[in-house]
Write a sequence for this structure.
């Protein structure tokens, strides 16, 4: 089933035309990687999918984006509901300066869930899903900032899972982490794919090749090539894609 | 080899530092030695537990409690006014206002702090009190309420400005994390940004309290000059500072016991503001460590 569908999307920051005629469809329960040189618009496109760019004054968008068939920029859409459904994990782990428990419970509380048992259960379940439960189950009331970077990032994933999204957007989620933490995050993404649709931006070609089902190559604001990961990395149909993945530029 | 110009500058800087330290030490020395004279005549227990303060009357009592209660009451009213207002203004400026508005309004607020306090005093006495008397007939023409309220307005900039700095310093990534989970701007401001800035806000509140305790003109003019052991905001009260002005401006003889009461009151004031400053310094240090 089509989960995300972008139709002829153009994005501008003021006069700067940063995304050009993007057409792309993402299926349910898949991992899609966005690759491309710095400044090509990967983050911008990712952030149009949960309307995170709404806060930038100069941001303008043309074209349409549908999630589960609904136009997410429609006036009737509540952006808070959209973001609940489309979660986001950022490049640098950004836990709140609260306890581990409070970090995961935060999303539930802001959405009006106050039943203690329900909150406890969801916190535990989310931490288990994020493969962090065993490491933190005895210190849930400790500050989140006392965790290691890799643990903090998994906490951020748990926090996102707690509000029960169906899509998770990840913007270079492992780029600030050591190789072991990175491997854990990658493994986690593989498991989460069963239940969620994942879109991940990465600068790491091997990572894209390892974890994604489909890969989109962006270059200077254009979607140059979008195909099955196995095809795009072994037999790209575009010269620019080939140059990029073989490291001849970017 | 240093150039001689640099050597001179260095010496001048060191000298001004030394002068400042010596002045402070001198003040503390005078406070201690003069109040030692006071406590030689008046037992400490009288000072701490007597419920009247009447050194200028025929029947003399030397209990600091009425002055402390006056100081406590006006400070409490001031902080109860300034804290909510200051934080709302700080949140508005840091989270809601656009950059241009923030750039214009913040300095304007800081001007509030530059208005001479005597002006605030007369404002309290001649505007606020008559206005409040329409609703509270039992309000005296000198009262703790008006003085406290106006003092609160006066310290709003202390709290709003320092709190705003603290809020503004909260990393953008925390706000994004909150929005990313579907939080509204209001939820993000009050459940993430304000708590993350809480130590900075606390410091601003403590400095505001120190400012209120040390404030003199407003209370001397609008709260009256009658030591009164009460927590009723409608009544006349006298604060430690107002008492010190009263004696300093009167014709009390130098070296007399009445004269020495000023130093006993002064050292009490000093102890409180000193403690508050240290607490705020300590919080600031802890807070810096946390983000480093
Ligand atoms: N807030 C903004 N205001 C104005 N221009 C922006 C803003 N954010 C990004 N841009 C511009 O939009 C273009 C695309 O940026 P974007 O961050 O989407 O690139 P990216 O592919 O994610 O790059 P990177 O790999 O470095 O993260 C760049 O030219 C950038 O300068
Ligand atoms: Mg980016």
């Amino acid at each position: 089933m089509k989960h995300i569908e972008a139709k002829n999307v153009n994005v501008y920051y003021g006069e700067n035309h940063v995304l050009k005629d993007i057409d792309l469809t993402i299926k349910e329960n898949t991992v899609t990687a966005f690759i491309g040189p710095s400044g090509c618009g990967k983050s911008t496109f990712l952030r149009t999918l949960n309307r995170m760019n709404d806060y930038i004054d100069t941001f303008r968008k043309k074209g349409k984006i549908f999630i589960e068939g609904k136009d997410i920029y429609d006036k009737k859409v509540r952006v808070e509901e959209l973001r609940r459904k489309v979660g986001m994990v950022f490049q640098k782990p950004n836990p709140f300066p609260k306890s581990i428990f409070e970090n995961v419970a935060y999303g539930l509380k802001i959405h009006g869930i106050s039943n203690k048992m329900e909150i406890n259960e969801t916190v535990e379940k989310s931490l288990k899903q994020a493969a962090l439960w065993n490491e933190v189950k005895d210190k849930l009331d400790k500050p989140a900032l006392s965790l290691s970077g890799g643990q903090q990032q998994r906490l951020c994933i748990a926090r996102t899972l707690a509000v029960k999204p169906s899509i998770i957007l990840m913007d270079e989620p492992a780029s600030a982490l050591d190789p072991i933490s990175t491997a854990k995050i990658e493994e986690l993404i593989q498991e989460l794919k069963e239940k969620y649709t994942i879109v991940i931006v990465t600068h790491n070609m091997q990572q894209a090749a390892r974890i994604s089902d489909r890969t989109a190559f962006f270059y200077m604001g254009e979607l140059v090539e979008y195909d099955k990961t196995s095809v795009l990395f072994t037999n790209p149909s575009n010269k620019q894609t080939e140059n990029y993945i073989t490291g001849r530029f970017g | 080899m240093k150039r001689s110009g640099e050597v001179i500058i260095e010496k001048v800087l060191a000298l001004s530092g030394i002068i400042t330290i010596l002045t402070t030490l001198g003040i503390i020395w005078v406070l201690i030695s003069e109040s030692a004279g006071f406590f030689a005549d008046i037992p400490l227990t009288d000072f701490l537990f007597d419920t009247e303060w009447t050194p200028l009357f025929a029947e003399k009592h030397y209990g600091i409690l009425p002055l402390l209660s006056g100081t406590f009451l006006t400070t409490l009213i001031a902080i109860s006014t300034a804290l909510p207002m200051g934080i709302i203004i700080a949140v508005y400026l840091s989270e809601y206002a656009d950059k241009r508005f923030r750039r214009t309004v913040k300095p304007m607020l800081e001007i509030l702090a530059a208005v001479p306090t005597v002006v605030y005093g007369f404002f309290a006495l001649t505007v606020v009190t008559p206005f409040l008397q329409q609703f509270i007939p039992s309000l005296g023409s000198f009262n703790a309420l008006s003085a406290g309220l106006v003092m609160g307005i006066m310290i709003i900039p202390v709290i709003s400005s320092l709190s705003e700095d603290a809020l503004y310093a909260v990393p953008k990534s925390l706000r994004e994390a909150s929005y990313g989970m579907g939080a509204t701007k209001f939820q993000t401001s009050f459940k993430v940004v304000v708590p993350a800035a809480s130590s900075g806000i606390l410091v601003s509140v403590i400095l505001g309290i120190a400012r209120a305790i040390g404030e003199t003109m407003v209370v001397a003019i609008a709260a009256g000059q009658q030591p009164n052991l009460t927590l009723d905001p409608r009544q006349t009260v006298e604060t430690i500072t107002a008492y010190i002005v009263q004696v300093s401006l009167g014709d009390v003889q130098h070296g007399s016991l009445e004269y020495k009461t000023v130093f006993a009151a002064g050292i009490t004031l000093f102890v409180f503001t000193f403690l508050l400053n240290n607490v705020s310094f300590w919080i600031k240090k802890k807070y810096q460590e946390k983000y480093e």
Summary: The interface with chain A takes residues 171, 173-174, 176-184, 187, 191-192, 195-196, 290 of chain B (CB under 8 Å). Residues 4-41 of chain B form one domain. The radius of gyration of chain B is 23 Å.
